[in-house]
Write a structure and sequence with these properties.
With 250 residues, the protein is of the alpha/beta class. It has helices at 45-54, 69-78, 97-104, 128-138, 210-218, 241-248; strands at 12-18, 39-40, 43-44, 60-65, 85-90, 114-119, 122-124, 142-147, 153-157, 163-168, 174-176, 184-194, 223-227, 233-235. It has one domain: Spore Coat Polysaccharide Biosynthesis Protein SpsA, Chain A. Helices cover 22% and strands 28% of the residues.
């Protein structure tokens, strides 16, 4: 992994790894540890995501903490950020979900620069350069990875990759923000490129999800899904998914 700043993606000043969650699906590990420090082939999920960003020259990284926050901080210090500059966004007092966590961390991002986010419990080999190129070419406000994998909650797109809504196939709940003759459902990969301007457009406060932000902004702003179906991706949300992750990520 290179720490050469010359490899950094144009305009992407930093990235945030969402690491604060309670990990209730990952018990019994999360009874005594944060999910971010769960191991896959001897390396923590957090270390693996730091290394993933390093592959693309992204070395300024924000990590939010809440559940067993001290353990996460200690691991980062012990390993000197695994070669990256890691800044903590402290959510010990209140867990804010992805949207609230991002907004709280606003002051930690370089003003005016594009940035990225990813989730600590998602392992993927999505090519960030291709996502960035897609984002630049389409001139979108937000671009994120999506795939054709099966899930219960889908984002809905028109045939130009533009976000139109959300659907829960388990409950039948649906939110349509933009009309379209075609609604194509894709699964969210949690790897996202944002324009810095998004901070001035978020109407929510406190605890809220990024999905809420996407849906609210989709009415008036260009928010796109980048289909990277065929790439490796594992949601390490449950203990049994560790074995799957270990078979794909050495």
């Amino acid at each position: 992994m290179s720490n050469d700043d010359s490899l950094s993606l144009p305009g992407v000043g930093s990235a945030m790894i969402f690491s604060a969650g309670l990990g209730t699906r990952f018990k019994p590990w999360t009874d005594k540890h944060p999910k971010a420090l769960a191991r896959v082939n001897g390396k923590s999920l957090l270390q693996r995501n730091v290394a993933y960003l390093q592959e693309y020259g992204i070395n300024n990284i924000i990590v939010n903490v809440h559940h067993f926050a001290d353990q996460v901080e200690d691991e980062i210090k012990k390993n000197d950020g695994w070669g990256s500059r890691v800044i903590i966004s402290d959510e010990r007092e209140q867990l804010l979900d992805t949207g609230g966590g991002l907004l709280k961390a606003k002051k930690l991002f370089p003003p005016g620069q594009k940035f990225m986010t990813c989730n600590v419990d998602i392992l993927t080999d999505l090519d960030i350069r291709k996502l960035q190129s897609f984002h630049e070419e389409k001139q979108s406000l937000i671009s994120f990875g999506v795939t054709n994998r099966k899930t219960s909650r889908y984002l809905l797109f028109d045939d130009h990759d533009r976000l139109c809504g959300w659907r829960n196939t388990r409950t039948g709940e649906e939110k349509i923000m933009r009309g379209s003759d075609v609604l194509i459902q894709k699964a969210y990969s949690c790897v996202v490129v944002f324009e810095y301007d998004v901070f001035g457009l978020i109407p929510f406060t406190g605890k809220f999800s990024l999905i809420d932000v996407y849906l609210h902004l989709a009415k008036d702003h260009l928010i796109l899904g980048y289909d990277h179906s065929g790439d490796r991706l594992v949601d390490v949300g449950k203990p049994e998914s560790v074995a799957i992750a270990e078979s794909l990520f050495t």
